[in-house]
Design goal:
Bound molecules: zinc ion
CATH class of the largest domain: Alpha Beta
Distance between the termini: 59 Å
CATH topology of the largest domain: Dna Topoisomerase Vi A Subunit, Chain: A, domain 2
Number of domains: 2
CATH architecture of the largest domain: 3-Layer(aba) Sandwich
Number of helices: 8
Order of helices and strands: HHHEEHEHEHEHEH
Radius of gyration: 20 Å
Structural class: alpha/beta
C-alpha cells in the first residue's frame, strides 16, 4: 500500500520510539489524536511544549522538577541522614506514596546496562558521590534499584564506589520483599514499605 499520509507516518514513527509503545499502539494513539475531536491533541501539544521548556533536573537529587532545587530536597523537615537511590522519578513517586520513607533521594535516570551500552560513566553518579563525600549529615545510602540483572549491576557499582569515597556511610539495599525481576513501579505500597523497614 502506498503511504496515504507521510505526516501520519512521521507521527507514528515518533510515537513508536517511546518506551512501551510498539508500532500497533503507536498507530492507534496517532489515529485517535487525529480523529474527530482534536482538542485533546492540541492540549497534549501544549503540555508537552510547556514541560519541555519548564522541567529540569534538580541540582541536588537529579529528579525532574520545575524548580532549581525540588520540593523534597528543599523540605527541611526531611531526614537528611538518608539518601535513597532510585532508577527514575516514577520509582521515587512509588516510594513517596508508601509514606514509609522520610529521607532524601537520588534519581539515576537509568541503570547500568552492558546490553544497551550504558556503563557506570553514563549514569550521573559523580553528583551523588560528591554529595555523600562532602555532606557529613549523610549516614546511610539506601539503594532501591530493581532486582533485575541491570538493577543488581547498578547497586553493586554504587556500593563499591561508595565504599571508596565514603567508607563510614552505611550502604543498604531495599530488602528482598520485592519479587525478583519486578519493576518497583508495579509493586504495591505495602510490599515496598515492608522492604524499606526490612532492609539489610
Ligand atoms: Zn531534589
Amino acid at each position: 500500500m502506498p503511504s496515504l499520509s507521510p505526516s501520519l507516518d512521521e507521527l507514528v514513527d515518533a510515537l513508536k520510539r517511546l518506551p512501551g509503545l510498539g508500532p500497533r499502539s503507536a498507530s492507534r494513539i496517532a489515529e485517535h489524536l487525529l480523529s474527530e475531536d482534536r482538542t485533546r491533541a492540541v492540549k497534549l501539544l501544549a503540555s508537552l511544549e510547556r514541560a519541555v521548556k519548564t522541567v529540569k533536573h534538580c541540582e541536588l537529587c537529579n529528579t525532574l522538577t520545575d524548580e532549581a532545587v525540588c520540593p523534597i530536597c528543599a523540605d527541611q523537615t526531611r531526614d537528611r541522614t538518608k539518601i535513597c537511590v532510585v532508577e527514575s522519578p516514577a520509582d521515587q513517586r512509588v516510594i513517596e506514596e508508601t509514606m514509609a520513607y522520610r529521607g532524601l533521594y537520588y534519581v539515576l535516570m537509568g541503570l547500568v546496562s552492558p546490553v544497551k551500552g550504558i556503563g557506570a560513566e553514563e549514569l550521573h553518579l559523580t553528583k551523588l558521590l560528591e554529595r555523600v563525600k562532602n555532606d557529613a549529615a549523610v549516614r546511610e545510602v539506601l539503594i532501591a534499584t530493581p532486582f533485575t540483572p541491570e538493577g543488581d549491576a547498578t547497586a553493586h557499582f554504587i556500593a563499591k564506589a561508595m565504599a571508596s569515597v565514603a567508607p563510614a556511610v552505611r550502604v543498604t539495599r531495599l530488602a528482598r520483599g520485592i519479587p525478583a525481576g519486578v519493576e518497583l513501579e508495579y509493586t504495591d505500597a505495602n510490599t515496598i514499605a515492608g522492604a524499606i523497614f526490612g532492609r539489610k
